[in-house]
Amino acid sequence: xxxxxxxxxxxxxxxxxxxxxxxxxxxxxxxxxxxxxxxxxxxxxxxxxxxxxxxxxxxxxxxxxxxxxxx
Length: 71
Known about the structure:
The protein is mostly beta strands. It is built from 1 helix and 3 strands; from the N terminus they run E-E-H-E.
């Protein structure tokens, strides 16, 4: 299984607070911005709105972009 480490993700996709600016509205539980992010595919095969949401779900990121549907 291939897992992307945060250091392998594009700059700005991952930060300590996950907010790109002080005006972002954050989810009170995960601290993830409620604005649209860069989708990622988790190792569980689910697409998350951002690295932050995958991390909140305790899932590692396997690839950038939405998961590809298996046929």
